[in-house]
Prior knowledge:
CATH topology of the largest domain: Beta-Lactamase
Domain IclR-ED: 84-267
Helix content: 40-55%
Number of helices: 11
Largest sheet: 5 strands, antiparallel
InterPro entries: GAF-like_dom_sf (IPR029016), HTH_MetabolicPath_Reg (IPR050707), Tscrpt_reg_IclR_C (IPR014757), Tscrpt_reg_IclR_N (IPR005471), WH-like_DNA-bd_sf (IPR036388), WH_DNA-bd_sf (IPR036390)
Pfam families: HTH_IclR, IclR_C
Protein name: IclR family transcriptional regulator
Strand order of the largest sheet: 4-3-7-6-5
Radius of gyration: 22 Å
CATH architecture of the largest domain: 2-Layer Sandwich
GO molecular function, one term: DNA binding
Shape: globular
Strand content: 15-25%
CATH class of the largest domain: Alpha Beta
Amino acid sequence: MCHTDAMSEGQLQNPAAKPSRDGILKRALAIIEYIAENGGSDAKAVSAGTEIPLPTTYRLLGELCAEELLVHLKNEQTYALGYRLHKFGVRLHADLGLSKEIRRELSELHQRLGMATYLAIHRGMDFVIAHVCDSPAAPRLAPMSFGFRENPHASAFGKLGLAALDESSRKQVLTESGMPALTDRTITDLDDLLSELKAIERDRIAWEHEEFQEGVSCVAVPFFSTSGVLLGSIAASAPTSAYEGMRTRIEHVLRSTASRVGRMYRLGPHFYRHVYQ
């Protein structure tokens, strides 16, 4: 596949032309993401890791530092994430409704079940993992960290989002996104998944049995707005063997937690701050 790094037709004809604004933005974001994933890094490491020419890397690092999106640690001769990003993170968490009370609910659920627990926020068909509680004894699903929202056909969160759509929209989303097999148990037949989604819509609970990751199963319960719109979901994952003889209890505990968290979202922060004081 040809890859032009967001270069315009004019740039392809004239390599000396300046990158488009779109190209500059993508490169700047690539630098921020690299430093976020790798920690403090010098310019040469950033350039090598992002495949951005070193002169361009130096220029973008300087501009990002000027905007306080990065900081230059002169004593260590490295660059790190800037304090302005913290403000963005705080605002995003506020938008997602991640109060300390909701985080406490997830933590208590994790301790009670002995499983990794998750909060996902749904916005239309899109969903994003907003909070995870896990431990060495009960680790999260490998890619399930803040922001994850891929492969809806193979995750309990994604199935809830699909179940909230009408059937024609379900078909459209699945046709456009595809249904790749992540494990031998991933449902890749459209009719089979559509049948399961009807049951999820009816029962308001979604399971995936080693469909996302071998040896691990996940269950998710939704919560809704007062008008019935899907707001989010509470989920737990663990080795499949951990569910043996515990399925009814796990479902009950998840539904109870989802009910409380849903009430917090519906009534707003002023209510639950008062309740938990």
